């Protein structure tokens, strides 16, 4: 069996005329969209509690008390859902030497000349930064969130520590929203990317242009030349 270093077991060439590659299995896509849905609920309920001018958003959840009750629940479920996604994807998001070259030549990426850069596996540096950024920010939010969850943990930390936890929680939330904006923008900006999380498939041309090392490995595992 061919060695697997840059691909998941479920990655597979599913059509050859034209070439289509399965990039995400169904369970991964469901996991991704369920996590995204929960994070949207988190953002809306969090913004509603963040500033009085946004309090009107609590109407989406049945009022202020309901939003305050539901927000941490959304957070816990979102973190558990993201954890499942993390366990599936973390290995291929480990930083590699070619990521440094990719970052040093970001202008080539922005000008559409990725062929001048080293071949990449399943993820580029930008995708890895989004992945690890969300991991660390969610971790910070869940820890700080437990500290300020007075309904269930009223005496867990002192008042000064709780104030710091509120600050960490708020800053982490704002940074997470920025990471999500970058993630969504990149998905639309890189033509052909969105289908990876809708149908689960990408075209051979897309894979050849952006993740050639990944495509080569998937083709090698099936004993199929990547050009076919």
Q: What can you see in these coordinates?
A:
- The chain has 228 residues and is mainly α.
- It is 61% helix and 5% strand.
- The protein contains nine helices and three strands; from the N terminus they run ββαααααααβαα.
- It has helices at 26-50, 64-89, 97-104, 106-110, 125-147, 159-189, 195-198, 204-210, 212-221, and strands at 12-16, 19-22, 201-203.
- A three-stranded antiparallel beta sheet has the order 1-2-3.
- It is elongated and about 60 Å long.
Number of strands: 3
As a whole number of angstroms, the C-alpha radius of gyration is 21 Å
The succession of helices and strands, N to C, reads: EEHHHHHHHEHH
The biggest sheet amounts to: 3 strands, antiparallel
SSE order and pairing:
Elements: E1 12-16, E2 19-22, H1 26-50, H2 64-89, H3 97-104, H4 106-110, H5 125-147, H6 159-189, H7 195-198, E3 201-203, H8 204-210, H9 212-221
Antiparallel strand pairs: 1-2, 2-3
Helix pairs in contact: 1-2, 2-5, 5-6, 8-9
